[in-house]
Amino acid sequence: MLFTRRQFLLAASCTICAPAIHATPSRPKVIVVGGGWGGLIAARQLAARCDVLLIERNAGFVSLALSNRWLAGLDDGRRLRQDYRAAAESLGYRFVQAEVQGIERERRQVVTSAGALPYDWLVVSAGISEDDNALFGEDRTAAAKTRQLFPSAYTAGSDPDLLKRKLAEFSGGEFLMTVPPAPYRCPPAPYERAVIIAQSIKSRRLPARLTLVDPNAPWPGYQRVFSEFFRDQVNYLPNTRLRQLDPARRVATLDIDEIRFNEAIIMPPQTAATLCRQAGLTGRDSVWAAVDPRNFAFSGDDRIFVIGDSVGAVSPLFGHYPKTGQMASRMGQIVATEIIGRLDGKPPDPALPESTCFAYLNLDPPQVTRIETRYRKRGDGALVQSISQNRENNPQGEDDVWLNARHSELFGPAARL
Ligand SMILES: Cc1cc2nc3c(=O)[nH]c(=O)nc-3n(C[C@H](O)[C@H](O)[C@H](O)COP(=O)(O)OP(=O)(O)OC[C@H]3O[C@@H](n4cnc5c(N)ncnc54)[C@H](O)[C@@H]3O)c2cc1C
Predict the structure, then answer these.
(1) Where residue 413 falls among pLDDT bands split at 50, 70, 90?
(2) Domain check: are 252 and 298 in the same one?
(3) Taking the complete model, does pTM exceed 0.70, yes or no?
(4) How far is the CA of 250 from the centre of ligand 1 (A)?
(5) Residue 170, number of CB atoms within 10 A of its CB
(6) Do 165 and 86 sit in the same domain of this protein?
(7) Exposure of 376 by Cβ count < 10 A (0-12 exposed, 13-18 middle, 19+ buried)?
(8) What are 327-344's pLDDT values in tens digits?
């Protein structure tokens, strides 16, 4: 038996469960927390050798990667949504829709809204959380109101439809958007979103302006696009921090001045997922998970792996891996290989991940930037990063091909369109 009767009944009472897959008692139990880009691939690959249970709070997968493209009206969005239950059924793991509330390391079990569930190996790919404290301190009402009125649409479970409606309904005035301080997920995505908003203002000839408040150094490619194509639409403020926000009065306090706004997208600073922080998986003095940079084993317990955007600094030379979907998937593959290798008594020399990311620099004319990051190990063991960034002035659906390939990795042939 994999679960006690009580655990089984609790799991069965949750909103969505995969039909029972007959568990083989001798198969090791793996729990994967989080059905995002990292968790899905780990679950799929481990299912060949282990009894895998994917636990995820949402009923369905919504891809944030390439959601900007859909926001711009360049994609019908069908590939961005997938059903977890169908994926689990076809790929040989089980799925429970539940909230993971804690990890009991000594007992090797996770505590969830569907009961306590035991594991031999645990893979946590729970993404990111947003840190409201940085902006609102103890003022929970202002934080909640900001999330409700001006959501970032940057975390799993956020509703991209809401953002699309917001843009469609915006009819003029000041549109405020903030960029989180680095490190944050998908570095070009906020700028790509800014281009989409600016293009909408320009093509609809709205009496409006987008103010982009960016605490980071300017991104040269986008800075050029803002000044060449959107001089009248975008007020780009790099190296500028949002200090305070009053969502009721719609006033933002920046480093040196205050602005009043009509509409906004507020992106607070990001941290590892709340679960990582609550379960003590983050490093000392860090809001990111403390893991071995090569195999992603948590530094305090080698039966636990943390992958994806929650992962903390991996190299003294460049800090964090880029927080991208492809990187999270590569980490999922590395961890699956690591666990299977350990089960076979042959721990592998972990592969190094890589990431490719596409972002629109401009929509009219279309220009795309392709960012590729690759890694190698230096003589002293430190990881070295090389980044190449290329502008494609005549894109021919390369991002589309990329999304098909990634979705095929996560969901298999059924996801190929
Ligand atoms: C606008 C935008 C555009 C992007 N574009 C690209 C792109 O072009 N290319 C690219 O590679 N990447 C892109 N990304 C980044 C990519 O989406 C992330 O890097 C990727 O989702 C990270 O995967 P993850 O598994 O770490 O986290 P996620 O995909 O966020 O998955 C985490 C999952 O864990 C679940 N979860 C968290 N806590 C719990 C809990 N306690 N209990 C149960 N479930 C829990 C969440 O519901 C979520 O489903 C983009 C991101 C954004 C916001």
Answers:
(1) low
(2) no
(3) yes
(4) 29
(5) 18
(6) no
(7) exposed
(8) 999 999 999 999 999 999
